[in-house]
Amino acid sequence: MQTASTYICERLCNKSIHEISLLLNIPLLTVSGIITKWKQLGTTATWPRSGKPRKMTERGQRMLKHSARRNRQLSTKSTAKDLQTSCGLQISTTTICRELHGMGFHG
User: Looking at the record's lineage, which domain of life comes first (predicted)?
Assistant: First the structure.
C-alpha cells in the first residue's frame, strides 16, 4: 500500500494527477483528495472533526439498554437519575430518548 507522502512526492516531481493515478494504480479521486488536503492543511493528517463529541459512551449505551429492558415502564427522567447514580453520567432526557429510539425502543 502506498502512503500519502508518495503521492505528494510524485506531485512535486511535476507529474500530473492522472500520471500519478496510473503509475500507482490508485483511483484519480483518491490522489486528488490527498493532494488537495496537503495543499490546504500542509499535512495529510485527518480533517478536523466537525460537531460535538458524543455524550453517551458505549458503556453508557449498554447500561441504558439493560435498564430499558429490565423495566420498560420507567420514565426518561427516572432513567436519567438511574444512569447518573450507577455510572456517573449526567445525560439529559432528550439524549436518553434519542439513544433509546436509535436502539429500537419506541414510546
Answer: Eukaryota
Distance (Å, whole) CA 1 – CA 28: 16
Condensed to tens digits (0 to 9), the pLDDT of residues 6-23 reads 666 666 677 788 888 888
Instruction: Name the nearest CA neighbour of 103 among 73, 60, 50.
Output: 60
- The residue type at 38: W
Run means of pLDDT, 10 residues per run, the chain, 107 residues: 62 76 84 80 72 85 89 86 82 89 86
Residue 82 CA from chain centroid, whole number: 27
d(CA 17, CA 77): 56
Residue labelled with grid coordinates 430518548: 97
Q: Give the position of cell 460535538.
A: 52
Threshold 0.85, pTM exceeds: no
